[in-house]
Here is the input.
Amino acid sequence: MTVGAWEAFWLIVHREMRLSFRRPEQLLQPLVFFLIVTTLFPLGLSLQLSLLRDISPGVLWVAALLSSLLSLDSLFKSDADDGTLEQLALSGHGLTVIVVAKTVAHWLVTGLALVLVSPIVGTALGIPTDAFATMLLSLALGTLTLSWLGAIGAGLTIGLRRGNVLLSLIVLPLAMPLLIFGAGATDRAISGTSAMGALYLLAALCVFTCTLAPFAAAAALRITLE
Amino acid sequence: MTSSGGFWYMGGYARYVWPCIVFACLVLVWNLWSARRYLAAAKIRAARALAMAASEAP
Amino acid sequence: MWTWFYKLASPPYVYGVAAASMPWFLGLAILTIGYGLIGGLVFAPPDYQQGDAFRIIYVHVPSAWMSEFVYTTMAVAGAIALIWRIKVGHAVAAASAPIGASFTLAALVTGSMWGKPMWGTYWAWDPRLTSELILLFLYVGVMSLRSAFEDPARGDRAAALLAIVGAVNVPIIHYSVVWWNSLHQAATVAKLGKPSIAGSMLWPLLSMFVGFMLFYGAVLCLRLQGEVLNRERQSAWVREAIKS
Here is the structure.
């Protein structure tokens, strides 16, 4: 029975989701890390909530970036370890479909989870509720872009010693424009000015990355697997 | 020509201008030196590899 | 002419060309850099606004240009190597990375020193400075990735892919001063038509650009020989080559 590309996509997404939910603790780890990192800033700086508001977009975004990085390691690693990745690569569907499916599934359980948790964190950092819409949208776009940048990095660093340090070293510089626009959008929303410019740029970055990154990530996997 | 105070004074900006020039020259020198070392090490390793291959040949 | 391109894919040929041309590159580089420095530091008149501090331009701008140029070369060489499987491309990319990183560092440091008298601060998070700093991180990432692999060929390919992905940053650096109103000065030399800078200041600067390019050529020749040797250690032509 041959399976078309779309079916393969949904099958892999479905599989990834089932595997992720089999170990719910693994899902919670990046979220808890996100909460902990955001807590570190107010504790370290001991600021009033009103002053915390000024740095809150940056804190939120740095925390989201770091927690996403933490979870990226698992994108390909377990499948690479037990040989599933090679089987998928040999399946004839092309690495690109597989990479898209795995990354989308990964974003659904990590990035989207971060976005859903962010109102809690935002309140803790003093972000006013009328800035939440921008915050959520910018985080959604940003985490999706980050999942893609991370997929390229993860594909390049599977199986390397200290691979996760190298992964961060590779992904973070690429993610810096993202941080600038994402935090900038939320910042503008908090101060009342229009965040549309920053949001458009963020969306452009997201579209650009989502279009090209699958090919780069598939090429990365091909380099690692051959 | 440089303004009052002479060449080394750089019109009062000497402590910014000269470290820059010196640093840039250091970078250039480092590049040459490190590239020479790299090539020398590569030659030694190649010679060693050839010697091992020659001694292993039947 | 195309046969020359074919020959460039051959490691022994490249090794020979690099060994022979290095002294020429270096000699010309020393002459042009010497002229540039003397012309810029001694003979150019002080700037109307910046006084003698503007002379930092003679090392800062060529360094910044080289940091972008070398990265682009590294990415293109890596792409050629990946697409057409020409190993010499990987050697060029590997040889260029540390050179480009050092130019980036020079640009950042000299720029910082120039910033203090001009803007009152050693650093600002403006788009051009930030993206130049990101470029340094990208260089370090590429070099680290290449060395992290036990199989050097695989390391080369991974580093090439990363260099290509990071190449998106180079236009951002270059056009950041156009796209954003920021602290950093906009283009003075590369504007088409009359550059907005005096002749006695311009010629030493152009000479420094040429000199730095030639210098990159010289250092690249040296490192490229080393990289080719490392990748071709087992080949027969190496025996003759290393006798020199």
